[in-house]
TrEMBL record:
One of its GO terms (cellular component) is NatB complex. Belongs to the MDM20/NAA25 family. This is Uncharacterized protein. Pfam families: NatB_MDM20 (PF09797).
Amino acid sequence: MLASPLWPDSTDILRDYLRFMDDHFRESADLTFLAYRHRSYSKVIEFVQFKERLQQSSQYLMAKIEIPILQLKQKANNIEEGEGILDSLKQGVQFLELTDEIGTKSLTFNEELQLRPWWTPTYDKNYLLEPFEGVAYCTGQTLDDQIKQSQAKVVKTIEKRSLLPRLVFLSIQCASSSVKGNVEANGSVFDPKLSSELRLLLERYANILGFSFQDAVGMAFDISSGLKDAEAWSCNLIDWMNFVVFLNAWNLYSHEVDRDSNKHGSTWLLVNLILKKYILDKVRSMGALESSPGCDLPHLVLLITEPLAWHIMVIQCCARSLLPSGKRKKKGGPSEQCNIELCQEVQDSIRCVCETLELVRDWLNQQMSKSDNDKSESILSSLKRDGELGPGKVYRVIETLTSSSTIDRGLGDVITRALQSWSPADISRKIITSQRTALSNFLRICDSKIKSVKGLKAQL
């Protein structure tokens, strides 16, 4: 759901969940006080411990982090509104504090995985979106190892996501201060400590991805120039794209990424090449959506609404600093040559972002232009053709069950009724309807970004 373009629905789900949890915490406090008044001290301890477990719930912490990130994604086309969201989050500092707390307390997980059958997937597996790897018997030790790996992955994910608001804030601060000779209208100047903090957070982000800062920078340049295989990024593609965007923003002020320009180019060029390459590669690899309903659309949505969105915010900050306005004034003796070069890089980046978004928009329009009947036939034919693999195998099993003269009543009333009412044509129509809803929402997101970036292009 967090990778869905249905932002209003995602927001409602997250808010309702947090409201439910907050109400439960208040009720828990009342029950604790009531138990204390009745001198039921064992119940007091039980309520307090249960509340602490809920407060350290990995799912609860993730929801608290994702709500503001979702708000930031929705406001990323307007830098002033985006800055307003960041200000309400104390510029992302409160989530850094949350990350520090995670290091001192043990997270709790909402299910006892040891009690689940050995063949069921852990919560980081989604067989509706990911390929089914088959079932192999797990010994007790193997299952324990899988659980530990899954829980460690959740902790890393929470840490990465909690760094995002602060990384975005520091990136736009560095980008705003990249124009030589500009100060704020109130006379304030950029604090170099913010650039140093961004460098430290980038190092921390790279460490979470399993690399040192220097190795991560080197890998980014090597992959963009084709010296290394891009498979190294396949598991953490969105995180690597975020890293590259924030790296460019930091380098705009620090200029510490000293690479041979003849071999590698600037960090602006790095961001442009990598974002365009991976977004368009994702579009080409998906092909027609009706032939693979559980495709990589969520990954494409994340590429557009996170790394590309943060990059657009960086571009907006640079453009705002380059343009004369009442908010900024010139200092004496600016380095005009540096500003001219920056303006050219910003214009090149705007052009690259526009081209990328327009190609994605064309693909979306192409998918939506097909008739529902054609899509339905394509879905059903692909399921019948791939009858021994994945969804096709499930389709064949259900079809066999429903085509028999008598459905086994031993399956239970609920399953029996579902099998009796099951219709392949009805299922395909529901898939197409939900797909069209997702595509139309994603198209609106792309259109709004294109409009925003073209507005900057006209100003420059």
